[in-house]
């Protein structure tokens, strides 16, 4: 019997995707790990890892990558859409092109994968599709509006997809992570424009980039997150929804409050002066 096959996007070194690859391999999968460049996945060296350059914002790149997998295997058993793009800054200061890039990656990137893989899973009458969303797709916070919106769209699309995949016998899982340890803050850089209405909020806006990586925010180790997720996904009955990581309990409480109360509380907290070390490299 051939090994099960997983296809994972966003597998650059040091991120959630790379950790998921390692855990799937440990479960006996052959994993097709993808990123925009193969060089970005240099840490993935196991013999059961196949590395492909795939850009989820490009129709042809996605189609070619999926076609290669199906030419070499019996089919994809688990598809994990993990590739993501984050932008920090007020909505009024965000160029349209930058906002479009966020949505193209976080939402339409998943749509492209679904369009290419789901019909083939449907023909086999089996498979699992996993979308990596965010708790920010469920309750928005200031200064990352396009990211929030892209994840909210992803959540709604995934829930609809789950219902429509029932006749195909294809499982659909939505993961809504909270704070997970990654290299996102190391890659982030932001300066509030001089003419911005939000110049006085510069520390608070930069705090958004780094707070999720602090102990105060309850950040979860990347490998721990990957171990839990892969364990759940590879079970005979994977959950339809899973939310783990830092701040998820607090977010769950906020979701149960009246919406206006929750927004008022979030905005109040967003205006507070952040502690030193939580809005820039320590």
From TrEMBL:
Pfam families: adh_short
Keywords on record: NADP, Oxidoreductase
Keyword 4Fe-4S: no
Family: Belongs to the short-chain dehydrogenases/reductases (SDR) family.
Name recorded for this polypeptide: NAD-binding protein
Keyword Transcription carried by entry: no
Species assigned in the record: Mycena albidolilacea
GO molecular function: oxidoreductase activity
């Amino acid at each position: 019997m051939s090994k099960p096959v997983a296809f994972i996007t966003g597998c650059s070194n040091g991120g959630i995707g790379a950790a998921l690859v390692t855990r799937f391999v440990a479960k006996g999968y052959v994993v097709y790990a993808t990123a925009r460049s193969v060089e970005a996945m240099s840490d993935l060296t196991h013999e059961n890892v196949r590395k492909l350059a795939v850009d989820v914002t490009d129709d042809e790149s996605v189609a070619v990558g999926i076609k290669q997998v199906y030419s070499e295997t019996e089919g994809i058993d688990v598809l994990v859409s993990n590739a993501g793009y984050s932008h920090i800054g007020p909505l009024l200061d965000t160029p349209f092109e930058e906002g479009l890039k966020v949505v193209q990656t976080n939402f339409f990137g998943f749509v492209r994968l679904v369009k290419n893989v789901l019909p083939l899973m449907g023909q086999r009458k089996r498979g699992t599709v996993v979308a990596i969303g965010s708790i920010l797709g469920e309750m928005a916070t200031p200064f990352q509006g396009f990211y929030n919106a892209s994840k909210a769209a992803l959540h709604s699309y995934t829930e609809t997809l789950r219902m429509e995949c029932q006749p195909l016998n294809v499982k659909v899982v939505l993961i809504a992570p909270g704070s997970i340890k990654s290299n996102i803050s190391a890659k982030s850089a932001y300066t509030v424009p001089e003419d911005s209405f939000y110049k006085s909020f510069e520390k608070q806006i930069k705090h958004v980039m780094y707070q999720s990586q602090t102990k105060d925010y309850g950040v979860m180790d990347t490998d721990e997150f990957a171990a839990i997720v892969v364990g759940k996904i590879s079970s005979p009955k994977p959950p339809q929804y899973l939310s783990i990581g830092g701040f998820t309990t607090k977010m769950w409480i906020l979701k149960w409050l009246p919406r206006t109360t929750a927004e008022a509380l979030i905005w109040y907290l967003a205006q507070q002066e952040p502690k030193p070390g939580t809005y820039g490299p320590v």
